[in-house]
From TrEMBL:
InterPro entries per record: Isochorismatase-like_dom (IPR000868), Isochorismatase-like_hydrls (IPR050272), Isochorismatase-like_sf (IPR036380)
Alphabetic keyword roster: Hydrolase
Organism: Marinomonas pontica
Domain Isochorismatase-like: 7-175
Coiled-coil segments: none
Transmembrane segments: none
Signal peptide, first to last residue: none
Top-level lineage group: Bacteria
Keyword Cell inner membrane part of the UniProt annotation: no
Protein name: Isochorismatase
PANTHER family, per database record: ISOCHORISMATASE HYDROLASE, PEROXYUREIDOACRYLATE/UREIDOACRYLATE AMIDOHYDROLASE-RELATED
Pfam annotation, one family: Isochorismatase
Length: 185
């Protein structure tokens, strides 16, 4: 059997992620890089999964039935692209994602989106633990500034870098965009 192409998984690229109330973030070029990856995957007829967060908290930017939950225009799924809806950070929890990937015989995943230390990190950890060959395109993810456990303010870049460090080598391999392009041809 020939090797299946890598699956591009785009995490939580919803309108609320771009609103000022989401917070101060790093990597302003992440959306451009994600859009280029999507275009490359589509041009090569490779599989794409879009993940959308539907919050259970009424005051969330991702509460159902309001604009924050909608996909951003640049990240609208096509009819033949899979959409996973989740109410927790991890896209594998309470969804059919793992079963769908295995039923389709997909083994390699390329994960991008936001936020690096939340839904991206949670999903990547599960993917690695479930035995998928997992890559994270660090330049196609972003994080928001956050206080650490001890109350010290951490910049969005620090949060992003620590999250990538948590993932690299244990749950996934962190790669650049050019390396990701090479996973689909």
């Amino acid at each position: 059997m020939t090797e299946k192409p890598a699956v591009l998984i785009i995490i939580d690229m919803q309108q609320g992620m771009s609103w000022p109330q989401a917070g101060v973030r790093n990597n302003p070029n992440a959306e451009r890089e994600m859009a280029e990856l999507i275009a490359h995957w589509r041009a090569n007829h490779a599989p794409i999964v879009h993940v959308r967060h539907l919050s259970t908290e009424p005051d969330s930017l991702f509460w159902p039935d309001q604009e924050g939950v909608l996909f951003q225009d640049a990240f609208q799924p096509l009819l033949d692209e899979k959409v996973i809806e989740k109410s927790v950070p991890d896209a594998f929890t309470h969804s059919d994602l793992a079963d769908w990937l295995r039923d389709q015989h997909f083994q390699t995943l390329v994960i991008v989106g936001g936020s690096t230390n939340n839904s991206v990190e949670s999903t990547v950890r599960s993917a690695g633990n479930l035995g998928f060959t997992t890559y994270v395109v660090g330049s196609a993810c972003f994080a928001f500034e956050k206080e650490d456990f001890f109350g010290q303010a951490r910049s969005a870049e620090e949060v992003h870098a620590m999250s990538l460090a948590n993932l690299h080598g244990e749950y996934a391999t962190v790669i650049g965009q050019d390396d990701a392009f090479g996973l689909v041809s």
